[in-house]
Amino acid sequence: MTPEAEPLVDPWRAQHDPAARFGIPAHVTVYTPFLPPEGWQDPALALLERFLPTEVTLARLENRPGGLVILAEPDDDLRAITEAVSSSWPALPPHKGNRLILPTT
Q: What is the Cα–Cα distance from 18 to 102, expressed in whole angstroms?
């Protein structure tokens, strides 16, 4: 969750982010597809707590196919969380439908 970002991104999220319409606050997504609801109580989720809290700066906007993306920097911790999710739940489909993670600039 990124409560400090809420006032900055709320107008865009209200128009473009279906999650906002369901009351999900501003957040950083590190892995999609998400765990199915039956996995939300998985004890392995506690292993991810070692990464939290992590501090990032919402650095810039990029208009990518399918959505407006706010890039967080530095993203090393976010990439580590993504890798931990991949390792902890290997049955999940590849991150972002097997799209490559873009290199940092």
A: 24
Given this model, what pLDDT does residue 10 score? 87
In a domain, 103, yes or no: no
pTM of the model: 0.69
Position 104 in a domain: no
Q: What is the mean pLDDT of residues 87-92?
A: 85
b/e for 19-46, b at 16 or more Cβ within 10 A? ebeeeeebebebbeeebeeeeeeeeeee
Q: Is 29 part of any domain?
A: yes
Neighbours of 85 (CB within 10 A): 21
